[in-house]
Amino acid sequence: MKLDDLRDKRFSYDVVGSTAQPETPPGYHRLEYRHRIGTGDEVFRRAGEAVMTWKAHAAAGIHVIATDTPLVIGTNSLGRLGVGSVGLPVPCRVVWVVDEPDRTGFAYGTLQGHPQAGEESLVVTREPDGIYYTILAYSRPATWYSRLGGPITRAAQLQVAKQYAKAVERLANKH
Fold first, then answer.
1. Which of 82, 84, 104, 114 can bridge 48 by disulfide, Cβ–Cβ 3.0-4.6 Å?
2. 158 vs 48, more confident
3. Which domains does the chain carry?
4. Model pLDDT, residue 175
């Protein structure tokens, strides 16, 4: 699968935009991970930049190519789970973007060919007690092998969320 192949792909789930809502869509597993990454305007700015330019993915060890950097609604991205040519393609499309004085980030949804079906948001917020990075995801298996993975797949999703958070923290606190 190539990045150009994603242009005509459809979403693999029916609750597009769901991460902007507080309720978990019926039939989906919810993952929410929140991590304090520091304090101050520069930490907020650097964290937001890392999230919106795919640098957080790279720093977490997830190679992603995308149609737009910085990303915008409609940006297609193609990552890979695994090693080299034996990895599984993870095609996604950005469904919403937020760029506010105290909140920046985006959500992307899975496209046909992704092993999971659902959506994930990656948002940096400035709050009275610090800067936070939050991942919120709704997903369910889209393939027989992801169904077979069950709890192992969910544990792997949490581990990747923690990797992202640590990567954003490192990038945001670089001087």
1. 104
2. 48
3. 12-17+25-172 (3.30.530.20)
4. 66
